[in-house]
Amino acid sequence: MKKFEIGVGMFGDLAFDKETRKFADPQQKLQEILAEIKLADELGIDVFALGEHHRPDYVVSSPEMVLSAAASITKNIKLMSAVTVLSSAEPVKVYQDFSTLDLISGGRAEIGVGRGSFIESFPLFGYDLDDYHELFEEKLDLLLKINAQENVTWKGKLRAPMENQTVYPRATNNGKLPVWIAVGGTPESVLRAARLGLPLIVAIIGGLPRQFKPLIDFYKKEYLGHGHNPEEMQIGIHSHTLFSENPEVIDGYFENYAAQMNRIGSSRGWSAYTKMQYEGGRSKEGALFIGNSDEVAEKINMVKEMFGLTRYIAHMDVGAPNHEVMMKSLELFGTKVAEKVR
Q: Tens of pLDDT along 106-151?
């Protein structure tokens, strides 16, 4: 297995002002994200991941655009999407965008692909939700073919075929970009990643992390069963995280967190998010990595050992904590937590 990496994930959550009934300024938010990525790089954090959404409460609809801006102000940090909603994207353009990012950044681009738990992109880009599963299967097949070779001949059902067509520019590393499969917990998605020998990242944002162990064990078994090199196996998790040594900040963060959970839940039939859920998630066995540096480092080490992780992505901006809190959280992650988990 590869070395253990720590990373930061964000969706670009926009705070909602109840008095003005407006979301925060997207321009200011993007500038704050860039400052946060720059700090993460300076702290030696390994990866920065941005997710794609098409909603009023998230500012990042095009991760590769923001990551390209970040490439010019960073030196070492890997720049990843988490995720690119591949089902409603064009694989040729996805490869071109990330290969361009890769060239700008000196070989630091990665693609995290998923089917998307948010479905706004499907009607936005003219796709039928009835094709949800088949779209991802087909587009992943095409993306991997483009990633592997310069000249592409390919045929599917839902996209026009390609006949000896070339895709440029080519990324560094002989044109090959790291492609991670991001899953929410479906065995079919895990099996797909294992069969293809692709690195897996699991979103663990609720329940108990140990409930995911059978799924990750299944991935390991199938990965090896399909003849892939165990030395190249990569497994990550992506979980809601915030660090602060001030108990008042952690307690107060409940308001941010609950507001975003309720905003999402209102369209999904979820009941109102409670303080009991928050504290339960923050407990030693829970899925929220929110607390002081010692508490959260202990939990990261627990899941690192439980799953055999090679990467932990701290999703750090749920509910839009303010920029100062975010910068302090990043500082703790890159210093106190990093030395405990590496």
A: 999 999 999 978 999 999 999 999 999 999 999 999 999 999 999 9
Length of the chain: 342
C-alpha distances (whole Å) from 61 to each of 12, 18, 84, 205, 238 are: 9, 24, 10, 21, 19
Angstrom distance (rounded) from CA 224 to CA 304: 20
% helix, strand, coil for the chain, step of 5: 45, 20, 35
Q: How many C-beta neighbours within 10 Å does residue 342 have? A: 12
Residue 238 sits at the vertex; the CA angle it makes with 67 and 184, to the nearest 5 degrees, is 110
**Which residues lie closer than 8 Å to 157 by C-beta, 6 or more apart?**
134, 138
Element containing residue 203 per DSSP (H, E) = strand 200-203
Give 340: exposed, middle or buried? Use CB within 10 Å, 0-12, 13-18, 19+. middle
The angle that helices 91-105 and 132-148 make with each other, rounded to 10 degrees, is: 50
